[in-house]
Amino acid sequence: MAEVAVLGSGFIGLSCAYWLIRDGHRVTLLDPQGPGEATSYGNAGTFANYGCIPVNNPDVFRNLPRFLFSSTSPLRIRWGYLPQLAPWLVRFMLSATRSRYEHSARALASILSRAFDGYREMLATSTLASFVQQRECLYLYSNPGSFKAAQPSLDLRRSLGVQFDTVDRDGIRQIEPDLAPIFEHGILFGGSWFLSDPRGFLQALHTSMLAQGLQHERVAINTIEPQRNGVHLIDESGRTHGAEHAIVCTGALSKRFARQCGDRVPLDTERGYHVHFPFTSHLLSRPCGWAERGFYMTPMTGGIRAAGTVELGGFGPRKNPALLSLLTTSAQQALPGLPQPDSTWLGFRPSLPDGLPVIGRSRASPRVVYAFGHQHLGVTLGGVTGSVVADLVAGRTPAFDLNPYSPSRF
Ligand SMILES: Cc1cc2nc3c(=O)[nH]c(=O)nc-3n(C[C@H](O)[C@H](O)[C@H](O)COP(=O)(O)OP(=O)(O)OC[C@H]3O[C@@H](n4cnc5c(N)ncnc54)[C@H](O)[C@@H]3O)c2cc1C
C-alpha cells in the first residue's frame, strides 16, 4: 500500500484513482477544479469503442484544401497559432503514411477492445450505471460520395474487430424518426453506449471514492520533482506535497510535467465545441454523428448537446463564432425541431500527432507515471487507462503491450 498523488480530476485522473484505491493505495487528487470540470465536462459522452480510426489518415493531404477552406468543414486552423503549432503539424503529416496510420489504428483497436473491462466493475454500482444509456451510436452520411470514400476505413475497422451494421435511408427513419430525411447511409456500432451526463458521472464517482478515503486537495501543481523514494509536487503557493508515486493526468496541460521529468512529448490540443439545445432530448434516442460535419448530437439530461469540430489553435479561451454557428445550423438542419441553443462550450482535447495516448513511466523516475493525450477518446478510454496505470504502480505486467503508447516513442 502506497501514497499515490493523482494530478487531474477528469475522466483519466478519476479512473486512475478508482483503480489505485481498488489496489488498496492511499490516493490524493491534486486539482484546483472539481471532478469533470475541464474537457471531461462538455464532450459528446459516447463510449466509442469503435473509434480506432486516427485522424491522420493517408487521404489527409488530398482532403486538406477542402477541410481548410470549405464553409461547412469541421476542421479549422487559427493561423496566428501556426508558428507554435508547426512542430505538431509536421509530425501529424509525417504520421499520415499508410503504415503509420495502420499502426495507430491497430494500437487504438487494441486498447479500445479492452475499454469496457476498465468500466465493468464501476458500472456494477447502480448510481454510476444510472448515467449509462445502452443505445448504440449511429454515424450518418448525408453524401453518398463520402460514404463511398469511407469504405476503406470501415473495412479497416471491421478487420480490427469493430462490429457494425449499415442502415439505409428508411432504416435511419425507423430508428430516429425526428431526423431530417437528408441522410443516405448510417452505421450502427455494436456495443457502444453513451452517458446522459458525463460530469454527473464523474461527480458520482468522486463522491463514492471520497467515502472510501480519497483525498482531494484543491491546488494547482507547478513542479514535479522525482526523489529517490518518491516524488515532490510543488504547488502554486510553493507548498510541497510528498507522495511515493505520482500520476500525471492533467489532459492537454501535461506537456510541461513530462518535460520536467525528462520527456519531450509533442502534446498539443484539438479544440472542440458544443452547443446545447434545452428540453429537446426526446428528439433522439441515441448519439447521432454527422460524419461530414464532424460532430455528434447526444440526447443528454436537460437537452441535446451537439459536440465536436476540430480547431487547431492552442489554449486561448476565445471561442470561434464561425464554428459555433456551423454546429448550431448543422444540428438544426439535421433535427429541424431544434430551437436556438441556450449555451456554448469550448474544450481542449489533449492530442498527440500520431493519435495515440501517452501511458507509461517517465524517463526520470518509474515513480512518475503519465496518462494523458486521449484526444477524442478520453471518456471511452478512462477506465482501461486507470487499470493499466494501477498495474504499473503495482509492478504488475499489464494485460496488453503498452509500447505503442510509450512516452519515449517520439
Ligand atoms: C467536443 C468534444 C467532444 C468529445 N466527445 C467525446 C466522446 O464522445 N467520447 C470520448 O471518449 N471522448 C470524447 N472527447 C474527448 C474527451 O472529452 C477527452 O479526451 C477527455 O475529457 C480528456 O480527459 P482528461 O482527464 O485527460 O483531461 P481533462 O478532463 O481536461 O482533465 C484534466 C484535469 O487536469 C487538471 N489540471 C490541469 N493542470 C493542472 C495542474 N497544474 N495541477 C493540477 N491539476 C491540473 C484540470 O483542472 C482538469 O481537471 C470529446 C472532446 C471534445 C472537446
TrEMBL record:
PANTHER family in UniProt: GLYCINE OXIDASE, SARCOSINE DEHYDROGENASE-RELATED
SUPFAM superfamilies: FAD-linked reductases, C-terminal domain, FAD/NAD(P)-binding domain
UniProt name for this protein: Glycine/D-amino acid oxidase-like deaminating enzyme
InterPro entries: FAD-dep_OxRdtase, FAD/NAD-bd_sf
Keyword Glycosyltransferase (UniProt): no
Source domain of life: Bacteria
A Pfam family per the record: DAO
Positions of the FAD dependent oxidoreductase domain: 4-392
Keywords: Oxidoreductase
